[in-house]
Please model this.
Amino acid sequence: MRLYIAPTADFQYSYQMPKYFKDYTLKNVMAMVKNSKLDPVISPTRAEGHLAVITGATAGIGYYTAHKYASMGADLLCINRSREKSEQLAAEISGRYGTRCDFLVADFSSLAQTREVSTSLLALDRDIDVLIHNAGLYLTTRSETDEGFETVWAVNHLSSFLMNELLLPKLAAQSRGRIIMVNSEGHRFAPWGLRTDDLNWEKRRYSGLGAYGSAKLAQLLCIKVTAQRLAESPVTINAMHPGAVKTDSGKDNGRFYRWYKEKVIERNFRSAEISAEALYTLGIGESFCHESGKFYHLTTLEDPAPPAEDLQAAREIYEISRVSCGLA
Model:
């Protein structure tokens, strides 16, 4: 069944090199380079009584993050694609830390499955203290979901967007809560904004970096609108770059890419444990409880690329995303 809905003429074409070119500065580039050498702030605050919901928790950043939260006393609800790996993780977490680790199974390339798990989250009889959107992927060749979306766009942006939108009533009614989007410096791979006339990559040659960057840019733009919607509540939403760390991202690509990633791209990368430390501090650390709508490099506040600061583009892609998800 194909559900993809292309943008209508009401949406403006926001891909404009002249619009953003003058906003790029050497200062911002140097800040990004400097931040890449920093370690995250480590929070000593315990998390007993907190529930952390983590997507994509069976490997990489999500795996280490689940262990970090559990080691500090938090209960977990992990949402993963594999039931077998979810069962293994739950047994490992509960056996090692004595905390509760439940799970739900969903493939985030499916908005239908995203809706199902969101409904389950809405039905929880306790607050969601920390919601970490970590599930994502990188593809070198274009593929399409059963619902008609380019896969990277669906997994890296639309699924987390849809979940946030469906959970907003529950989250806004809570006495506390933090949403953290595992974003990326890769949003800079869309340096001139989003091709809102071709978000599905049907009119141009597919670029793995371009598709990834576009999805991450859309994510950054949408948190600005979501932060405004949550402004009167105690719930915050922020994004973070997890650092140059080794992950399982790209494992669905060909043998050469996997070799190149391991031997060249990630040759000097660090363990994803530093990402977990940052995600814990952003989710539990007291100094971050009032920050919202921000982008962090680990735990260091950073200015994203100029297109990610465009409020008009943010409102535009927010509405396009609502239409695509069947919310408008």
About this structure: Residues 1-13 have pLDDT under 50 and may be disordered. Residues 6 and 97 are 47 Å apart (CA to CA). The chain has ten helices and eight strands. The radius of gyration is 19 Å.
